[in-house]
Request: fold
Amino acid sequence: GAKRSPSRADLSVLYDLTEAESRLALAIADGQTLASIAVRHGVKYSTVRSQLQSVMQKMGVRRQADVVRLLASN
Reply:
């Protein structure tokens, strides 16, 4: 059957991500840039970058591409 993307709640449970971190991870997996995510949510680019670092640490990966790969495999 068709693959279902993980929800924010799934990511919270699987990786202990906050709501903002989950939203960021899903946006990255959807191909959005950090700059566009920052504008969309009305936060500084540095905030989004910091959230990405936290996401990668919690997911146990070193690169943004690995976040995308992990979410695509779920």
About this structure: The CA atoms of residues 56 and 67 lie 7 Å apart. DSSP finds five helices and no strands in the chain. The mean pLDDT is 92. The radius of gyration is 12 Å.
